[in-house]
Amino acid sequence: MDNIRLSGTLLADDHAAAALLHARVSRVVWIAFWPLALLLLVSGILRAVGTTAPPDKTLLLIAAFVVLLPLGRHFGIQRHARQLFAETKGAHRLDISLGEDVITVSNERGNWTLPWSDVHKWRSNEHCVLLYLNSALYLILPKRLLTDETALVSLEEKLRATVGRPA
Question: What global pTM score does this model have?
Answer without folding.
Answer: 0.73
